Amino acid sequence: xxxxxxxxxxxxxxxxxxxxxxxxxxxxxxxxxxxxxxxxxxxxxxxxxxxxxxxxxxxxxxxxxxxxxxxxxxxxxxxxxxxxxxxxxxxxxxxxxxxxxxxxxxxxx
Length: 109
Fold this sequence. Notes:
Blueprint: H1 2-5, H2 7-12, H3 15-24, E1 26-30, E2 33-36, E3 52-56, H4 59-62, E4 63-67, E5 72-76, E6 87-91, E7 94-98, E8 104-108
Antiparallel strand pairs: 1-2, 3-8, 4-7, 5-6
């Protein structure tokens, strides 16, 4: 977290922008491309190493969610394994498909 406390970071952005950057990781846009960092995440949640970069194409070219059946609804009643509640269980199977590997690029220095 040295980047947050460095004078360059502290003096360049106003407090609201700094909070937004730390919470979302979104640094801004460059030529219509959103720039996001995981620098401010907990070490256990980081994906990228120092100097790594991953670039994605537009979402419609990267992949899709596919449905593997309709939403199934089951009414909750007292007969179901000790659940003393009213309502519905909803269940749906989804999958993800990466259909264009050329829309993802990875680099490191």
